[in-house]
């Protein structure tokens, strides 16, 4: 339906359904709040946090979701940030990486709260604890400390 990430996968199926099969029966939600991906909204590169190129959505102006406060984000799609269990520290000082650090830290915060609600102690990993809350011991999937079974106990 459009030139966006996932448009030729299942993510494109829902827009197609409402755009062509059931027109005028949907409400478009802000992609900065729902399904936040930390993606570049324009076709050009981002240099020194300044975006360049045309808006991918075909409008003259477009919001750079990477500048949106994390408190506004309801759901996250980790495609560009990579899945949290890859223990990617996103160390670069670039707009996308700063947001990915925050989104990943939030994921691990929720995990930590869940495990503690089960009566478990905080994570013991020492790798970038401000981001990973003790659930990574090094970068990469091999550094991830999975949730121990039994779940919920």
Which sequence of strands runs across the widest sheet? 1-2
In percent terms, what proportion of residues is strand? Answer: under 5%
Poorly predicted runs are none
Which sheet architecture does the biggest sheet show?
Answer: 2 strands, antiparallel
Mean pLDDT: 92
Distance between the amino and carboxyl termini: 45 Å
The helix content is 25-40%
Radius of gyration: 18 Å
Q: Count the helices. How many?
A: 3
Number of strands: 2
Query: In one word, what is the shape?
Result: globular
Write structural notes for this entry:
The chain is mainly α and 153 residues long. The chain contains three helices and two strands. The protein has helices at 10-21, 95-117, 129-132; strands at residues 46-47, 50-51. The chain has a two-stranded antiparallel sheet with strand order 1-2. A hairpin with a 2-residue loop joins strand 1 (46-47) and strand 2. The longest helix has 23 residues, at 95-117. The chain is globular and about 50 Å long. The model has no long low-confidence stretch (mean pLDDT 92).
Notable traits:
single chain, 153 residues
């Amino acid at each position: 339906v459009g030139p966006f990430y996932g448009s030729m996968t299942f993510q494109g199926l829902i827009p197609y359904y409402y755009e062509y099969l059931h027109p005028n029966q949907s409400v478009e939600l802000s992609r900065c709040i729902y399904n936040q991906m930390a993606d570049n909204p324009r076709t050009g590169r981002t240099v020194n946090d300044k975006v360049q190129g045309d808006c991918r959505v075909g409008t003259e102006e477009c919001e750079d979701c990477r500048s949106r406060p994390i408190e506004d984000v309801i759901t996250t799609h980790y495609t560009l940030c990579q899945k949290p269990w890859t223990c990617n520290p996103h160390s670069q000082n670039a707009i996308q990486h700063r947001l990915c650090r925050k989104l990943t830290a939030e994921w691990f915060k929720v995990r930590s709260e869940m495990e503690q609600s089960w009566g478990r102690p905080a994570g013991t990993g020492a790798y970038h604890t401000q981001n990973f809350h003790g659930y990574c011991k090094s970068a990469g999937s091999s550094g991830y400390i999975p949730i121990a079974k039994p779940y919920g106990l």
